[in-house]
Amino acid sequence: MGVEDPFPGQCLTSNIPFLHQRLTRRVGAGKAAVEPCWRTFRLPDPWLPFLFPGLPPGHGNSHWSYAGKDKAEWASDFPHCGGHMQSPINIETGAALFSPQLEPILLPDYSLPPREKLRLQNNGHTVVLDLPRNLTLTGGGFPQPYQAAQLHLHWGSALKPGSEHTVDGHRYAGEIHVVYYSSHFDTIQEAQVEPGGLAVLAAFLQVGSEENEPYQHILDHLNDVHEEGEETWIPAFDVAMLLPDDLSRYFRYNGSLTTPPCYQTVNWTIFNQTIQLSPDQISLLEDTLHGDEDELIQDNFRLPQSLQGRSVLASFPMLHSPEGAQPPGKGACCWA
Ligand SMILES: [Zn+2]
């Protein structure tokens, strides 16, 4: 897209690492001459390190996966992944510190017109919806606004849930991450390597009885991007509707990207109220997208990382019952 091919006539010019790898394999099998050229999948270079977090700036051939062995070895290729402020974490509600400075999160003017189109993409690890930077995040105790970059999802499989963060050891069916970067920076590439340069809003997905209409805006198009590297443009909608109604109750801590290169620059906000999707919607998420080696993308979550002395703050005081604190839920029955 908009990047001139320096090697016309050849097909090994994709700037997307996993496509490059796939093409290399096909050349090795002697099939290159009959394969369609993948140059159509070139992306603007500034987006690469973020949309494909396994691609450190200036290194076009790095690769990572969620497979157990690979995950344990992320730090050997991406040193930040072995740092002391990694994400996700298990949130111990009993240890969270109430902070009155944590004001409600504000997401003004998110109702985008359907004539505006947003890019939806399968990056081989998840489904990513690009967001316009004029969607801002304010409040939340942040000294400056953040501007939107993208959102994506994490999920499990029919056998196990797949949220990244856990609460008192409980893992939810899935998790949405809306990624922002500080308005102090012109690009997310600059922001993501600076302390506090990124902010991510996270909410847990649970199985409920009813279909969640806002999520259908994305799920309706999953089949259009079921292969790794595919993208489509979908009508814009109010993406704030993908988050809980209650944006005032949340947990906050300093952590990292949960995928390589694991930069430790993220202000995490994890909402207390969860989001309900129908069983069919959760199943569609778990059983549609394909990634590396054409395998289903499932269990695309990283295991909880050690807190290493970090504090987890809560924007609300908690009432501790004799049975102990309840994990977040739709009703949020047991919080103050
Ligand atoms: Zn994520």
From TrEMBL:
It catalyses: hydrogencarbonate + H(+) = CO2 + H2O. Residues 62-316 form the Alpha-carbonic anhydrase domain. SMART domains: Carb_anhydrase. Its cofactor is Zn(2+). Pfam families: Carb_anhydrase (PF00194). One of its GO terms (cellular component) is plasma membrane. Its EC number is 4.2.1.1. One of its GO terms (biological process) is morphogenesis of an epithelium. PROSITE patterns: ALPHA_CA_1 (PS00162), ALPHA_CA_2 (PS51144). Keywords: Glycoprotein, Lyase, Metal-binding, Zinc. It is an enzyme of class 4 (lyase). Coiled coil: none annotated. One of its GO terms (molecular function) is zinc ion binding. Reversible hydration of carbon dioxide. Belongs to the alpha-carbonic anhydrase family. PANTHER family: CARBONIC ANHYDRASE (PTHR18952), CARBONIC ANHYDRASE 9 (PTHR18952:SF18). This is Carbonic anhydrase. It comes from Podarcis muralis.
